[in-house]
Amino acid sequence: MSATQGPTTESGTPSSPAPEQPSRWNQAFREITTGNAIISVLAVVLALFVGGIMIAFTNEGVQEAAGYFFSRPGDLLREVWYSVSGAYSALFQGSVYNFRRPSFAAGIKPLTETLTFATPLIMAGLGVALGFRVGMFNIGGRGQMLIAAALGGWVGFAVDLPYGLHMVAALVAGVLGGALWGGIVGLLKARTGAHEVITTIMLNYVAFYLVSYLLREGFLKTPGSNNPKSPATKVTAVFPDLLGSTYSLHFGFILAIAATVFTWWLLSRSNLGFQFRAVGLNPHAARVAGISVKRIYVYAMLFSGGLIGLAGINQVLGTTTSGFGAGLDSGIGFDAITVALLGRSKPWGVFAAGILFGAFKAGGFSMQAAEGVPIDIVLVVQSLIVLFIAAPPLVRAIFRLPAPGSALRRALPNVSQEVAAQ
Asked: What's the Cα-to-Cα distance from 38 to each of 28, 238, 401, rounded to whole Å?
């Protein structure tokens, strides 16, 4: 056999060469570019890019320069650059670090504001993400936060307990309130098959009007006041500040980290978490394997509601300690859905997504004050993030990323050619 002749079969006919195996670096690159994390990152990049276009279109200087574009095109490009770079620079300085402040302690204050805004988003996002992992769409965050705030807030202003113990008691009451309100949804689904989307939406309204009534006529009413607002939380139940009274960051952020670790352990290391994931992947196969799917639905909504309830009690004991109203959730219950989607329902992904959206909230006001950018632009960017996350093929097409599994298909040998050769 000559040196140039390829391998042959037993009958003497040449066989096709073995497929070339991709290198280790090539495999790592394909795992990164076909994974879910890169899609989330690129979705944020695309949303910021489209948001920059909208900032430029709404800027008065850009609109004025566009009127004489053909005579002096450089003016338009310069105005576009100034408007977009100025807006995103204000976003950074309002959410991460303000270089115009005289000291580091003053310059880092925007980051503490971001973490404060992110704290309830992380907690509620973890609750929504846990429901996603079980195949349930919990959009009842508003109601679960309100019930948690009502029960935990009442303990916070009506009960006399020593410092520390009072905070723990109010915290436990709030988490149990959110868990019970979420558990109703799981019980209805397990016993009657009622879809959780319908029941959570309806329970949102029930919780809102119930808490509104309690603030006007019930045990949450401030004595001698007609304002539908609860009394102030007692000092013994308020979350302590982490960095002193100069900053708004409080103990709730430590609870957000603890909740993230707990959710990660629950889903990844516990037997109950394995059952959660099994039911989420295929409830019929899980039932065949001996898992009580109905029981898992109830447990999942209990945990999901408890985590979202933690966000509600965080608002009462940490953010609005002077008293709360029926608008306590401030859209956090629905923003948590976006955070869970961006985090791909992974605990640490939700943690990072919550900080990102906290930065949007903190920096959005700075953009509006410093550059005159409408605050609605930030909401548009958040909506675009959801849009791009919901359409991974669109993101892959824009950035020319390989589809998942494409590397594996290329590495497989061509069996039909070998059979034909034999």
From this structure: 13, 40, 10
Beta bridge partners of 241: 250
Is it the case that residue 345 has pLDDT exceeding 80? yes
3-state secondary structure of 241: strand
Give the integer Cα–Cα distance in Å for 138 and 131. 6
Rounded mean pLDDT, 1-26: 54
Strand partners, 14: 8
- Distance (Å, whole) CA 164 – CA 57: 52
Q: Read off the pLDDT of residues 232-251 as tens digits, 9 standing for 90 and up.
A: 999 999 999 998 888 889 99
Nearest CA to 385 out of 44, 151, 56, 153 is that of 44
Decide if 314 contacts 131 (C-beta within 8 A).
Answer: no
Which token pair is 421? 């050769």
Decide: pTM greater than 0.90: no
- Whether 325 and 80 have beta carbons less than 8 Å apart is answered as no
pLDDT at 17: 56
Residue in 306, 357, 300, 319 with CA at minimum distance from that of residue 122? 357
- Residue 350 in tokens: 């939700």
Query: Residue 92 burial (CB < 10 Å; 0-12/13-18/19+)?
Result: middle
Q: Longest C-alpha distance within the chain, in Å? A: 104
Strand, helix or coil at 8?
A: strand
Overall residue count recorded for the chain in this entry:
422
Question: Helices (H) and strands (E) in the chain — how many of each?
Answer: 19, 0
What are the phi and psi torsion angles at 358 (to 5°)? Answer: -65, -35
For the purposes of burial, counting CB atoms within 10 Å of the CB of 205, is it exposed (0-12), middle (13-18) or buried (19 or more)? exposed
Q: CA angle, corner 349, sides to 179 and 88, nearest 5?
A: 115
Q: What are the phi and psi torsion angles at 274 (to 5°)?
A: -65, -40
Q: Among 409, 390, 388, 408, which Cα is nearest to 399's?
A: 388
Reading the block at residue 46, the tokens are 């695309």
Closest CA to 53 of 380, 399, 382, 394: 380
CB 323 within 8 A of CB 222: yes
Residue linked to tokens 């650059």: 81
